[in-house]
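Holo prediction. Input below; ligand is adenosine-5'-diphosphate.
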Amino acid sequence: MILSAKHLTKTYIDSDQTIEVLKDASLDISAGELVCITGKSGCGKSTMLHIMGLLDEPDSGELEICSKLIHSNDPSAPEVRNRDLGFVFQFHYLIEDLSAIENVALPLLIAGNSESGARKRAKELLVLLGLQDRLNRYPNQLSGGEQQRVSLARALANEPKLVLADEPTGNLDPTHSNEVWEMIRKLNRELNQAFVVVTHDVEAAVKATRSFELLDGRLIQLEA
Ligand SMILES: Nc1ncnc2c1ncn2[C@@H]1O[C@H](COP(=O)(O)OP(=O)(O)O)[C@@H](O)[C@H]1O
Ligand SMILES: [Mg+2]
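Structure of the complex:
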């Protein structure tokens, strides 16, 4: 099991109201799976993904990554986040002053790779994502779909066990959205890359190997 979330709860307390976002959310992800989590806006999808990515802490419940119990504030959490997890968000968060290849090379440099090694691997990933003609373009010279494909390449840089994607196509028109979904499926199929993709688009659920709806703080598996 790459990731196992058990009985997660999370409640937010605003000045005058308590919002029970997660009540008893459990999810197991095995190697090579493409799991989709759908649900209405505000139902807690991002909260769930942030907890799975060690970016937030649940109030109760347990999270295991690669069969090890872990908390977001453990000293080992940053290393697990960098080594085992990749992230893609709705907004690409690429660095505007860096070209596509430099954006993808950055996490490789941070992980200690040489400059030439990092560029080589970044180029391979961008080619894999069909961006061989865009290596030296800056984010503002790329379409929305291309920006998200660069974000995918960056998420894959350090060969994560699992990529967590929060509405990766939420900002795209249908054509570019399809383009990004096709890439996610290809990476899942050809590299056996595991993904959890969160989306409010219920039609996306059919693209997954398993899909869930986050409903009333619990994850309900949808029929295949
Ligand atoms: N830091 C926070 N403080 C208070 N309420 C929050 C916070 N983060 C999220 N919420 C609330 O929790 C609910 C779930 O949010 P979120 O996980 O972002 O939902 P989704 O991603 O499904 O749209 C929403 O009602 C949101 O307003
Ligand atoms: Mg969200």
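The chain has a mean pLDDT of 94. That is the main takeaway for now.
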